[in-house]
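Technical annex B. To support the medicinal chemistry partners, we prepared a structural model of the target in complex with zinc ion, based solely on the information shown next.
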Amino acid sequence: MALSKLDSLYRAVILDHSSHPHHKGVLDGAVSLELNNPTCGDVIRLFLRLNDEEKIEEIAFDGSGCSISVASASMMTDVVLKKKVVEVLELSEKFSQLVQGEEVEKAEELLGDAAFLNGVSKFPQRIKCATLAWNALKKALE
Ligand code: ZN
């Protein structure tokens, strides 16, 4: 597992989110979307509710997967909650650049703990684990 090769700070933040995921659960009556990453076996079911101002009012996720996929989903829910859809789509783009090893200005300010996932850029097969939740979110918002 590539996690052991990430440096210890990254590892601590990722493990914290994967062992105690934020916004884990089910939202009844919300928009939901399921997506999987066959390469690793990760499955996510994302739930979200928008308000009248096109902001994410509530978000939750369920499913199973590796530490990186679960941590990424947890980090993402923290970042996008209460944000406008347009802003969320921009953040999703930034995150995608980040995990592909591109330089993203103010990554931590914009993406919070999700900025710690930049380490996966060194492990191409893990990029799909990290982007699974974000891809599910983009699809759900379409
Ligand atoms: Zn995975």
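Notes passed to the chemistry partners:
The pocket of zinc ion is lined by residues 37, 40, 42, 65-66, 68-69, 129 (CB under 6 Å).
The first strand starts at residue 31 and ends at 37.
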